Amino acid sequence: MWQDKLKEIIYLLENSDVNEIDVNFWGRRFRVVKSPSIGVSPGPGTPAVTIDPSSQSSGKSEPVQAESHSVETSAGGEKILSPMPGTFYTAPSPDADSFVKVGDSVSEGDPLCIIEAMKIMNEIEAETGGTIVEILLEDGQAVEYNQPLFVIESS
Amino acid sequence: MYKKILIANRGEIALRIIRACHELNLKSVAVYSTADEYSLHVKFADEAVCIGPPPSNESYLNIPRIIAAGEITNADAIHPGYGFLAENAEFSKICKDNGFDFIGPNSDIINAMGNKAQAKKTMVDAGVPVIPGNEGILKDAEEARQMAIEMGFPVMLKASAGGGGRGMRLVREESEVVHAYNTASAESLAAFNNGEMYIEKFVENPRHIEIQVLADSFGNAVSLGERECSIQRRHQKLIEESPSAAVDDDLRKRMGDAAVAGAKAVNYVGVGTVEFLLDKNKDFYFMEMNTRIQVEHPITEMVTGVDLIKEQIQMHAGHKFPDYLYNMKLRGHSIECRINAEDPDKDFMPSPMSIISYHMPGGKGVRVDSHAYAGYEIPSYYDSLIGKLIVHSPTREDAINLMERALEETIIEGPKTTIPFHQAIMKDDTFRSGKFDTSFLESFEYNKEEKET
């Protein structure tokens, strides 16, 4: 249902001069953006604003779709989402060093952070190996379920 | 008074509690699973915390996640609503241990009323009439058999830890007693970890009449009248009304006094409901006490003018209820129809579809408690209640006519709903006469051809 609507919107964007559409329907809000920083679509190097009408039928520029869902990510990154609500801590204890910094390499099973609830410190581990591209929260910040914590580029 | 209350629930009751919080000028926190991201209770609360994926055991039944949400929002109290963790003694205790007031009774009271055999004994000591039966727990199947012969058949064997119809066996003959005892006990042991049994006289086709009790933390308690809840399908209420056509002023006073005595016997605080069975001779017997706000609370609100959720919060905040409630007379007649997303033509199969169009009735005496809206996708993970339609009129006949008018105005397109079923009941002569009991729906014939389109 709404997925079809979303596909329609993406199609519209790809095949027009429009950069960004903000739509409200069925109680849902979608913001679909043509991201110029991708650099993966072939053709002229300018930020992908105009799509040559003659190339419409070729069915390319599919990569734009991946970034068109409401939350933008940097190219190649995977978001690690919080498995529970609680308080986010970057280090195992107040005086210790952070588990990870931007640029660090991590392996599967390495601890990334702590999410605390009911006085219990839950260590959140990396599910795959990769490099920390971004840390999305501050130490001590409240976090809810599915909230993005890190961006990791898989190795 | 509290500054911020976290509502550990969802759907229409979460919305109801948020409304009371707004009116009391306190902040509300909603918790939600990812399936409820677009739910109204999330939109209307002051703050909302996503606590987990759709399954209840990872969200609305998950105590650590709910407490975590309370911690990060600095709530000072938690309201459990009904269902989910509302009568979970462990949750009540954990809230308190973590610094949150629980808008419900403490764990001792929940346990006392949750253990059916113990609850019955407490009521006997308080002078509340109970269904004739044994005292405490049966020693074995043989004792059950002896008691059954003494009391006379039919009898009901019940599990002390049971609920929802499990661990219960109706026995009509002596030869069936031992087998029934053994299977019921085993069923209860498997489901509730406790195989203890007790026995009661079986009251044939009773009416289910419950009394709403309000109690403050100073030992005062008052009855806010009865609710007639005999229109049930498989132990699930569909239509409730207040007052009951079977209850006159004298009976109302006697039942109210009994319910208050029972509540005081356990030092109850807040809102609670004492359920009774009323037999053909107008004798009433204690069945159980529900230590939470109930789904059907709006009909009591209509006939008394009392806001039960606001009062509940205030009782737990240490207020006293107003004196005039002692001499409260019920005013007019109120009926509630539970609107479920179920198909009455297909044995009430759930219909969790998107709501395409949605129009609720209005006008004098009509109230709608619902979290639904046009475009809402009903999640399939939770119960099928999408709203409650409540009417209030000077007389019972007026109220039934008003409910008919309101049901006809109600438009919900997308899911199948129980609206046509309610319409058929409103037309039914037996229902209109007021002379029915809990067997009403067993013999009610719902015909596809007769329902209005």
Give the class-level CATH name of the largest domain in chain A.
Answer: Mainly Beta
Low-confidence stretches of chain A: 37-72
Biggest sheet: strand arrangement of chain A: 3-10-8-5
Write out the strand line-up for the largest beta sheet of chain B, numbering strands in chain order.
Answer: 13-12-9-10-11-14-19-18
Query: Describe the biggest sheet of chain B?
Result: 8 strands, antiparallel
Roughly how many Å apart are the termini of chain B?
50 Å
N- to C-terminal distance of chain A: 36 Å
Structural class of chain B: alpha+beta
**Greatest interface and its residue counts?**
A-B, 18 and 20 residues
Describe this structure in words.
The complex is a heterodimer of chains A (155) and B (453). Chain A has helices at residues 2-14, 63-68, and strands at residues 20-25, 28-33, 77-81, 86-89, 105-106, 111-117, 120-125, 130-135, 141-143, 148-154. Chain A is mainly beta and 155 residues long. Chain A folds into 2 domains: 2-55, no CATH class; 65-154, RNA polymerase II/Efflux pump adaptor protein, barrel-sandwich hybrid domain (OB fold (Dihydrolipoamide Acetyltransferase, E2P), Beta Barrel). Chain A has a 4-stranded antiparallel β-sheet, with no helix packed on it. The longest helix of chain A has 13 residues, at 2-14. Chain A is elongated and about 55 Å long. Mean pLDDT of chain A is 73; it is low at 37-72. With 453 residues, chain B is of the alpha+beta class. Chain B is 33% helix and 25% strand. Chain B is built from 15 helices and 20 strands. Chain B has helices spanning 11-23, 40-44, 63-73, 89-97, 107-114, 116-125, 141-151, 177-192, 249-265, 297-304, 308-316, 396-409, 419-427, 429-433, 440-443; strands at 4-7, 27-33, 47-52, 77-79, 101-102, 155-159, 168-171, 197-201, 207-215, 221-233, 236-242, 270-278, 284-290, 333-340, 342-343, 349-350, 357-359, 366-370, 385-393, 411-413. In chain B, helix 4 (89-97) runs antiparallel to helix 5, helix 7 (141-151) packs across helix 8 and helix 12 (396-409) packs antiparallel against helix 13 (419-427). Chain B is globular, with a radius of gyration of 22 Å. In chain B, 51% of the residues are buried. Classes of the chains: A mainly beta (155), B alpha+beta (453).
